[in-house]
């Protein structure tokens, strides 16, 4: 008789690990594409009506990778008020979860927050069969809870695209427009897979989404996994986003060679300044990777790129640009930085919390 253990089916042993069953009786379905629902986080949504992070027909040709990753919905939100005691979602994804080191809920799920701008509190995350690309899932079903109007914010998946979305509320519940942001300006954050949210456990733990909960402005996440390379074409397209409050350049981690960073950073800023002469620009150097503790060459390359950023900004400041700031991202995760990642590079939720908390004071200062 074999003494090897049998495979463990946790869902059979622990009912709380099973996805909740969808009981959609007495539910009225709405399209978030129509009022009073508000879609935020997609800069071209008003023109194109798509859950997409770059324009469908950009003015400058984008790389295949950026074109594809633009269909990921990182940073997208649905905002509304409702008195409903139930909230369900029907979702059609562009594909299945396919990462070996990021949760399916982070890649493909939605999560839900309740509260006024600046006071959002987490409620729940969609759970479903990750072998499927279509699912219906509850976010809450409450009893013994008052029927007062509540402000709801839903965060879109960080990686997979969303083809269709419907919102289910209790039949007869009131639905109204959301509370407005502080004003109509946008915070634009351009960067890497870390910017996009890899490897947060759920969408709300991406650092741009964390920041959006304490800074009540619309955030535009244009992090492109492995493909934040500072191309001039991307700079031209991002400069077309209307009503910018702040541009954050967090792409250094994708540019391995210092000379490439030296080439792209001043040109990216120059292109953006052609349209936005005084919008604050924040350049953030990358977080520390675990391997840097043991690989002196890797650590030295990071220091060289960081110095390039400092030198570039000093030259621009001397030339009269008084609206540009450098932030040393190597300080964000703390002395135990290697413990804040999934794979030595991409942050866990702990890492993203530290990033957001470290960046928040500088964001607030620049947004004054």
UniProtKB/TrEMBL annotation:
GO MF assignments: hydrolase activity
Any Pfam family hit: Lipase_GDSL_3
Keywords: Hydrolase
Positions with biased composition (Polar residues): 1-14
Domain SGNH hydrolase-type esterase: 185-362
Domain SGNH hydrolase-type esterase N-terminal span(s) in chain numbering: 27-173
Annotated region (Disordered), positions in chain: 1-25
Name recorded for this polypeptide: SGNH/GDSL hydrolase family protein
